[in-house]
């Protein structure tokens, strides 16, 4: 009797552990995943080694929006984290540190601090037009977005990679959970 009770107790523990691992696997694969920021391309918004949570399911219900911070597959081995700047059907250009979408000036509030600290002779974002970038598109094709890092002088983004297929986006991120002194939710203003 005691052996049977002990065997049932072990069986209950094994079932509980398997259930816990199964739930963790489902959450990690389909809902949320951790990511570590690698490099300075999103400074000052995100710092190298910031740890964040990626929401993997939000884009199953909605399309990416301008200024969302997204994680996408840049290659089979590497994911990048950048900010969505242009949406399908739009034309993107930068001239004299000003972003233009379809010829209209667009504010980038997350760059205000960097612009305020610039010297008059410095350039935050080199001039470009969508046509001059890889792919040579006149407008961003359907099913694609245009992404840039906040640290425009040190970012591998759509200026080098071309437009990013939405299907390569892993998810949206805005929660920094580590290190403790950086815990915050970053948004479109940050």
Automatic annotation (TrEMBL):
EC number: 3.4.21.89
PROSITE patterns: SPASE_I_2, SPASE_I_3
Membrane-spanning residues: none
InterPro entries, per the entry: LexA/Signal_pep-like_sf (IPR036286), Pept_S26A_signal_pept_1 (IPR000223), Pept_S26A_signal_pept_1_CS (IPR019758), Pept_S26A_signal_pept_1_Lys-AS (IPR019757), Peptidase_S26 (IPR019533)
Membrane topology of the entry: Single-pass type II membrane protein
Reactions catalysed according to its record: Cleavage of hydrophobic, N-terminal signal or leader sequences from secreted and periplasmic proteins
The keyword Transferase is annotated on this UniProt entry: no
Domain (Peptidase S26): residue spans on this chain: 11-178
UniProt GO molecular function: signal peptidase activity
Keyword line: Hydrolase, Protease
Intracellular or extracellular location(s): Cell membrane; Membrane
Family of this protein: Belongs to the peptidase S26 family.
PANTHER family registered for this protein in UniProt: CHLOROPLAST PROCESSING PEPTIDASE, SIGNAL PEPTIDASE I
Protein name (Swiss-Prot/TrEMBL): Signal peptidase I
Name of the encoding gene: lepB
């Amino acid at each position: 009797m005691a052996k049977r009770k002990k065997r049932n107790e072990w069986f209950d523990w094994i079932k509980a552990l398997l259930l816990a691992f199964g739930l963790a696997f489902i959450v990690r694969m389909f809902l949320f995943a951790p990511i570590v920021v690698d490099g300075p391309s999103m400074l000052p918004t995100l710092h190298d080694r910031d740890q964040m949570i990626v929401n993997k399911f939000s884009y199953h219900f909605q399309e990416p929006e301008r200024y969302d911070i997204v994680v996408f597959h840049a290659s089979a081995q590497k994911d990048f984290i950048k900010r969505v700047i242009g949406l399908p059907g739009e034309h993107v250009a930068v001239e004299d540190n000003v972003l233009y979408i379809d010829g209209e000036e667009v504010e980038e509030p997350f760059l205000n601090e960097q612009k305020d600290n610039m010297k008059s002779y410095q350039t935050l974002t080199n001039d470009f037009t969508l046509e001059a970038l890889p792919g040579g598109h006149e407008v961003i094709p359907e099913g694609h977005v245009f992404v840039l890092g906040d640290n425009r002088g040190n970012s591998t983004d759509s200026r080098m990679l071309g437009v990013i297929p939405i299907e390569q986006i892993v998810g949206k991120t805005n929660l920094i959970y580590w290190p403790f002194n950086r815990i915050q939710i970053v948004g479109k203003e940050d």
